[in-house]
Amino acid sequence: MGVTDPIADMLTRIRNAILVEKETVEVPASKVKTEIAKILVDEGFLASYEVLDEDTKAACIKIRLYYKDKGDAAIAGLKRVSKPGLRVYRKKGEIPRVFGGLGISVISTSQGVMTGHVARSKGLGGELLFLVW
Predict the structure, then answer these.
(1) What mean pLDDT, rounded, does the chain reach?
(2) Is the pLDDT of residue 102 over 70?
(3) What's the rounded Cα separation, in Å, for the pair 133 and 19?
(4) Rounded to whole angstroms, how far apart are CA atoms 125 and 67?
(5) pLDDT value of position 3
(6) What are the pLDDT digits (tens) for 17-69?
(7) Can you give the pTM of this predicted structure?
(8) Same domain, 89 and 61
(9) Cα separation of 49 and 10, whole Å?
(10) Which residue, of 65, 87, 112, is where some domain finishes?
(11) Pick from 1, 14, 69, 117: most CB atoms within 10 A?
(12) Which of 14, 39, 65 lies at the terminal end of a domain, its last residue?
């Protein structure tokens, strides 16, 4: 049986890998999940990512988690906001700021997946996917 919420599955795999202090985690690949991984790397929450077996059904994203000097993960928390059963949309002025700028919101807009800050600066709203801090 397939996964009903692939983004939540990705976030849960990352959260679980951080809890057991793994260095890497693999998630099934898709365009949206690849964009999410790119955003998290660019914002400094993940060390790197790599798409394996890109043009096959078994394609997956290998994510290297980022840990600070003391062994603490860069990601302290992940919260899925919009779910398949209850989509959450926000206008440009309603996009939340996470912990006063210490975290980010990830939003799916008509111009692609981006952080809430970028969406606000472009004057875009969209589906609020998740928050990370």
Answers:
(1) 95
(2) yes
(3) 15
(4) 32
(5) 86
(6) 999 999 999 999 999 999 999 999 999 999 999 999 988 889 999 999 999 98
(7) 0.93
(8) no
(9) 13
(10) 65
(11) 14
(12) 65
Q: Quick check: is 1 in a domain? A: no
Q: What is the DSSP string of 5-67?
A: -HHHHHHHHHHHHHHTT-SEEEEE--HHHHHHHHHHHHTTSEEEEEEESTTSTT-EEEEEE-B
104: containing domain: 78-132
Question: How many domains does the chain divide into?
Answer: 2
Q: How far apart are CA 2 and CA 110, in angstroms?
A: 27
Round to whole Å and give the CA distance between 33 and 10.
8
- Residue 69: the pLDDT is 86
17 with 46, same domain: the answer is yes
Tell me the CA distances in angstroms from 36 to 17, 20, 93, 104, one per residue in order.
17, 22, 22, 12
Mean pLDDT of the 66-88 span: 94
At 119 the pLDDT is 97
Largest distance between two CA atoms of the chain: 41
